[in-house]
């Protein structure tokens, strides 16, 4: 037997997966005598390895050291009989950190008592080798703090005490660094095997990605590549908070890690020996004691080299890269910005080295929009740099420069016509532009949608027993605090679970309270993030769905339309997330309503068969606090613009300026999260409004994201909300209506250009819906010139909203269920609403 010990977020799961991929290894994961209720070694031995029969799996008594030792010894002997070594991955978390399972951990390993009581011979070996894997404690601390299991019981001091005590306890044991494993995984595993006299199996490199018999993150969130990664960016005040942390400094010293440069003002840290720099950029990465793997030492080395030769471009670039790897991205950005803007101008080769690094660093330091000027520079210098073109198009769209963004998407697609991210973004962004007709936009979807199409594989309806539940799945990357996640949660909760088996497939990285609520609501929750298209296809096919509903379309750059194009369910439906056609032939239906996509006028714009819901295209459960929000009386006409900046077209800006010119005492609040914190965006809007006769003092930019109640209070404080066009608001409009704020909209031809207008018409507020930009201006001006009439109007908006189908997710779900049942009963039919 071999014992592998480590604490959370130290790379133990990845290292264990790789070890377990060796044929000579039989691995049990997170095994502890006091943790058998969570991870039973007998159950893992049976289900993962077949060491024992399922019938022989018994519940073990917690903390019975002797009985636990006998069980492990028996499993070790069974593994040895098969020619394997049992590797037990210890759940050391319980001994050194404890929470949330143990309030006061013992700060010693339970395995000391187990091995002492049983003796190594009981484990089919003359000795029991023990390995310890460790990670730089600063990186371990940062990643542990993000773990869901530790969130509710987190305490910084508690974590640091546990990390230090563990480091003290394992001083006599062989240690392997996670950083060394990431840099040289085969060499690290070979060294571990040699130490334990375990045969090294080099074929693990071909098997580990498909090995999932491990505890820890679900398969969809497990690593798929092994490579070094930089430290997460840290703010100056975070470094300041750690400067006097004795536990951190002691743990770094115990495990042999260099003290990071920002902590070196501390007397104890200053005593740490680091190699001196040669002062020359000609030094190799391993000069002196500076290891290519120890980026904290690299910072010290190249800081001195840069100070000695400030005009040495190579030294400055190396310093910036080292700073990036150690989480000091703000310092790295300043080094690179000085270099980019300095004199004399850089050579072309130096520019090509500088610009990608500078853009990367600005992205990591949450200054991504500052990178636009440098990404434009790089696009001119290296027009075939595909990743730069993609990132530049995304950033430009984020600041409302949609037409320039589309141009970079086109360039990228000319270079790589199969770039799905560029194609998806192009289709999404073209909905934002005011330069294209609905027919032209549809034609682009059909043209580029072919790139997501594949020959569909036949899939007949599933044979169902009488009374068997209908199996429906929802696929999206937005099951978190996102418009799709917020709207879908009450719909999922409303499903009749006696008649429907509801599965959710979350293809996104983000996770929060809405994700957890979704998981608790549905019958099945599967994470697909990071999974290949082929594995997603196979999993969806294996799940035997009757209907799959795609909620994403071309939003977010990435999507699984290529998978749906091969058909993973007998009935496939597009709903909610993308307000246009997927143009994928294997997607059968697109759910809408008569206000969003008027019958007889929009069918030719869609590849799917349109299905008009009588209830509404969406239904949302307003926030509980929305009905309680109040604001003081507003002084003077106050307008609000709350939409995604990408949706604010030049023609919409011209309409806003015309309204402000016509109503000279009106002011405009502009708010969208923290987006108006970007100075270049504020400056551009001030220039554009000024060019149309509106002085800057009439624009009020909200530069920081507001807490929910303040966000709603801001929306309620305005007399009238101005919707974007041609691409209209959805979540923004629902929130405005929830606090009783009327919205004027400019109605287009199809759902993306009618979303808010459809809400207004469904509520009977046709007088707030304009047919063109001129009428849009007239409606707003008339309302603002008669504030008493406007206030009477808004007095009824909230009540109309709360009594409309827009706030009835149960009603929408019942109609949706009727449609699903009809499609499965009669494939290809359009089922009328009950």
Write the layout of secondary structure elements.
Elements: E1 2-5, H1 12-20, E2 25-31, H2 41-49, H3 65-81, E3 85-90, H4 93-96, H5 110-118, E4 130-134, H6 137-144, H7 148-151, H8 156-169, E5 175-177, H9 178-183, H10 185-195, H11 204-207, H12 236-242, H13 246-255, H14 267-270, H15 295-308, H16 313-325, H17 329-341, H18 348-364, H19 372-381, H20 386-398, H21 402-415, H22 420-432, H23 438-449, E6 470-476, H24 483-494, E7 500-506, H25 513-521, E8 524-527, H26 533-542, E9 547-550, H27 561-564, E10 571-574, E11 589-592, E12 609-612, E13 638-641, H28 650-662, E14 667-671, H29 679-691, E15 699-702, H30 708-717, E16 720-722, H31 731-738, E17 743-746, H32 755-762, E18 769-770, H33 773-785, H34 787-802, H35 809-825
Parallel strand pairs: 1-3, 1-4, 2-3, 4-5, 6-7, 6-9, 7-8, 9-10, 10-11, 11-12, 13-14, 13-16, 14-15, 16-17, 17-18
Largest sheet: 7 strands, parallel
Rg for CA atoms: 30 Å
Q: How many helices?
A: 35
- Number of E strands: 18
The helix content, as a percent range, equals 40-55%
Beta content: 5-15%
List the quaternary state of the chains: single chain
The first-to-last residue Cα distance is: 65 Å
What structural class should be given to the helix and strand makeup?
alpha/beta
Low-confidence stretches: 266-292
Major beta sheet, strand line-up: 8-7-6-9-10-11-12
Mean of residue pLDDT? 91
Shape: globular
